What we know:
- This protein is an alpha+beta fold.
- Among the domains are: 64-184, PH-domain like (Roll), CATH 2.30.29; 186-273 and 321-360, Pleckstrin-homology domain (PH domain)/Phosphotyrosine-binding domain (PTB) (PH-domain like, Roll).
- Helix content is 20%, strand content 26%.
- It contains seven helices and 19 strands.
- Residues 1-35, 262-291, 394-418 are annotated as: Disordered.
Amino acid sequence: xxxxxxxxxxxxxxxxxxxxxxxxxxxxxPVDSTFTPTSAAISALTAESxxxxxxxxxxxxxxxxxxxxxxxxxxxxxxxxxxLGPWEIVGANxxxxxxxxxxxxxxxxxxxxxxxxxxxxxxxxxxQHRRFGDxxxxxxxxxxxxxxxxxxxxxxxxxxDEYIEVKYEFTTIEGSIQLQSDIRKRDLxxxxxxxxxxxxxxxxxxxxxxxxGLGTIQRIKLWRDRYSTFHxxxxxxxxxxxxxxxxxxxxxxxxxxxxxRHRRVQLGARGARRGxxxxxHQSHGQSRERRFSxxxxxxxxxxxxxxxxxxxxxxxxxxxxxxxxxxxxxxxNPNIQAGSNDYTRFIDQWNAAHAADAQFEATFPTNHxxxxxxxxxxxxxxxxxxxxxMAELPSPEMLGSLPPVAEPAxxxxxxxxx
Length: 418
């Protein structure tokens, strides 16, 4: 019975397979001479070939001539890259960094949190964050460590008006240097990568032997004030989470200590800067974390200058340091050519800055007045327009109307000789 069932099943399967036509004849191999494509197959191939294909998204390289970019709504589906062109700083209370964007009708306003330029500190990272690149290129990435208000306006209206962490990416190092100088009204002279900065009040290492100090892995910047021509050092004290700014004239020109092997220097403060313990604690709350204002620098240039008047003594007390020295250990970067490393450049710039400050002995007025920008005497002060290299005076409508001058009547028959 089993044998007969298998035999019957086998013969039945063979007969059905030989007699039944293929179920999908239109997909048979075209090599077969008996293959004839049906109209349905032709229609399917025609429809597939004529279907529109989605082109790849264009590569956005940005418009030509832009200076920097900024990202709005970062890390969200609405993330937008704005291309920024020329800038100017306008207004007061608050000051605004006004960017003319690369596309028509776009304006980006960066509201600066302080009207005092000396209280603004653009931040750039240490070259260690990009070990194999040019250390100078870190200046292309400019940030601010506190949220700032950004307003972005297009032809469709205001698209962004929020406080964000501002991060600019510049196309040139020169553009970044110029913007930092304009924001602070102090020209950025140079910068130096350091491993650690410390002082007698904040030691280089803590009680456990860990390197601490005021800050580690930071970039010190050297500035020259546009008004007073004084030089300043600034850096971010990341272990204190504050910015520190020091006037170079508050330090002796001769280095207190110098270690070329370990790239360390100590800058000695002028005179006795610290007294008893109680005075040290008192000054701790008053001046250690104080940022220098524009008026605190107008004092006698050297400690040996006479302090006969009470005003000069008061100014000197305002700018007195609360430290005896400032220690700096510079970073070693193999990508920098020997002889031009940060340690060597700092010593050269230190001597040059002190020499420049010593040559200028003038005393600046403490209550100087700056006219508001961009209006002076009732009209804009972008400079009179130039016509073929010649300055053109403003029109009478801008200066006000002048009274007419009466001219004497002219008689052609009269004789001038009498």
